[in-house]
Each structure stands twice: as structure tokens, then as C-alpha cells.
Amino acid sequence: MTDFARARRTMVDNQLRTSGITNWRILDVMNRVPREVFVPEERKALAYIDENVRLSSSRTMLAPAILARLIQLAEVGAGDTVLDVGCGTGYSTAVLAGLAGLVTGLDDDPELAGTAQENLAALGLSNAIAVVGPLDAGAVGKGPFDAILIEGAVDRVSDGLLGQLTEGGRLVAVLGQGNAATAHVFVKSGREVSSRAAFNASLPPLTSFVEVPQFRF
After folding, report:
1. Is residue 216 part of a domain?
2. What is the CATH number of the domain that holds 181?
3. Cα(145)–Cα(118) distance, integer angstroms
4. Interval 73-128: pLDDT, tens
């Protein structure tokens, strides 16, 4: 039988700390949230490997270290309202719930969103919910958000999502595909949104954000 508590501690020490995660709150919460709860039964033994874990034909659970780096980039505060885009079965939403005031997980797959809600409820996370909807539309009525995290590589960030940021709000997304992709943080100030590249990151794409090539004469 797998000792998940020991696997969790090993994940924090050997994957997170060695990947530049210095925020003690992130280290603490990822040492407490049972990642195995959010992994399909047949893949539970893989819950703490340093790789993405397949959840469905269209969604994966991000490897622990890259998830932690994206969350650290978002600078999530204890009182923040957060949107987790592409939440899958809810692991990232649960981690964010340990860092923020209120978290909404969003997925366009009803089965995944339903599983996420069941998982969050089973852990007694009263400050986190999962909802179904188009990923690039955000969660109108649940925001505005102090931080938005997009759980996959995208070609663009929609105006709809950026428009749901609070003043000073941060949106973290990985732009581009493959090894050329880069994690960016977008910050809203007044009517403007600035962005900066932070680090290289290769993530599975979120098809909702893929740009359709335009035919030109």
C-alpha cells in the first residue's frame, strides 16, 4: 500500500523546493492537500510523480512543481478571490483554497467539474466551489477576481478573463506551445493590463484558447 503522506513530503522536498518554490504557504498547503484524492482510481499510484497525470481525453492534472510555480507567480493572498480555469478534478482549486479567501474552479467538462465539486465537498473546503462553463468566458457573477490561474497552455488570453480582474489583480497563463511556451503574469492597473514573461514552461494546451488559423488570399 502506498504511503501517500510520505509521498507528499517527498514531493515537497524533492520537487517543489528544488524548483524554486520559496513561499512557505505554498509548501505547507501542498504538504497537506491529498493529491491522490483527485487522481482517477487506476492512476492513484502516480499521484505524486513529477509529471502531468491524465484525467480525461482533454485534461491533465499539472505536475506538482509547475503548478506550484504558477501559483507562486500569481502571489495569492489570504483574502484573495481566485478563479482556477481548467480545474479538472479540483486539485489545484483545493490547493488555492488553502491560500486564498474564496476560490472558484471552472471547467468546460461537466463530468470533471462535477467530480471536482464532490472532491472539494468531501474535504470540507467551504471556501471553494467548482462550476461548469466556457473557459475563455471566465466565471461571470463569481468575481471580480484578485488572481486568475489558467491550467494549460494557451495561444491568447481572452478579454473576458482580463475584464474579470480587480484593480491590481494578477492573471497567470502559459503562452505558446511546446518548449517555446512561457509563463506570463498579467497585472491590471486602471484601464490597462500589463504583462511580463517569467519562465519557460511546457504545458498541455487548453483547446478553448487555441487560435483558429485565418485564411488569407
Report:
1. no
2. 3.40.50.150
3. 23
4. 999 999 999 999 999 999 999 999 999 999 999 999 999 999 999 999 999 999 99
In a domain, 57, yes or no: yes
In order of 75, 99, 202, 203, 207, the CA distances from 199 in angstroms are: 15, 22, 10, 12, 22
Q: Does a structural domain hold residue 129?
A: yes
Print the domain residue range for 38.
Answer: 4-205
Helix (H) or strand (E) holding 172: strand 165-175
pLDDT confidence tier of residue 180, bands split at 50, 70 and 90: confident
Give pTM, 2 decimals. Answer: 0.94
Number of domains in the chain: 1
Cβ 33 vs Cβ 12: under 8 Å: no
Single-letter amino acid code for the residue at 66: I
Among candidate residues 89, 76, 101, the one with its CA nearest the CA of residue 26 = 76
Per-residue DSSP letter, 12: I
Question: What 3-state class would DSSP assign to 29?
Answer: helix
Residue 40: burial class (beta carbons within 10 Å; 0-12, 13-18, 19+): middle
pLDDT tier, 56 (very low <50, low <70, confident <90, very high otherwise): confident
114 backbone dihedrals φ, ψ, rounded to 5°: -65, -40
